[in-house]
Amino acid sequence: MVREEGIRLIEETRIIAIVRGVEEQHIAGVAQALLDGGVKVMEITLNTPGAESMITKLQQQFGDQMYIGAGTVLDVEDAKKACQAGASYLVTPNMDEDVIRYSVEQGAPIFPGAMTPTEIVKAWKAGATAVKIFPGASLGIGYLKELQGPLSHIPMVAVGGVTEDNIAQFLQIGCYAVGIGGSLVNLKEIANGNYEWVRDKASRLTASIRSQG
Predict the structure, then answer these.
(1) Which of 43, 57, 164, 201 is catalytic?
(2) Which of 6, 151, 165, 186 is the most buried if burial means most Cβ atoms within 10 Å?
(3) Alpha-carbon distance 164 to 206, whole Å?
(4) For residue 42, what are the β-bridge partners?
(5) Is 132 part of the annotated catalytic residue set?
(6) Domain-by-domain residue ranges, the chain?
(7) For 3-210, CATH number?
């Protein structure tokens, strides 16, 4: 999927599914469940065993329908591995300007993690596509709302603590998108082959967004 189409999918669906710790045998089932539930953007974290192989396979099978990237990219070496595996975009938990610059050079969107206003502005100036506010669950929705005052020109992705009950709030205060991990990609249900659980959760999340008009 080309960059412009992928960015459009993020702006349209507003959800990035964070896939961490899923076994490779289940990854296609998870991707299909997310897609069926209306979540068309997913990242495979690099600390998931077999992550690079999974990214490559997902691109082959779902690359024309989903925007597939790599998460937990910690340094330039990780970024190179992710790009070589076929990741369409990169997500980091930390603010590393070298990784951001590398991603920009490769033409890959990047969503670096940042916590403070200083980190957020530095990430944006370095070339971030949008900045991931992390750890979002600890900081809370009030913190994100306060950031929107002076930094509303910087697209922000809320990660941590997002549920179907509060997802609309995150978007209402101005978040560009949200990242959702374990509460959507439930490892216990997936291990049991219950992909319908993931599909139904994805459907409820996307319904919550659509209800906002």
Answers:
(1) 43
(2) 6
(3) 9
(4) 17, 68
(5) yes
(6) 3-210
(7) 3.20.20.70
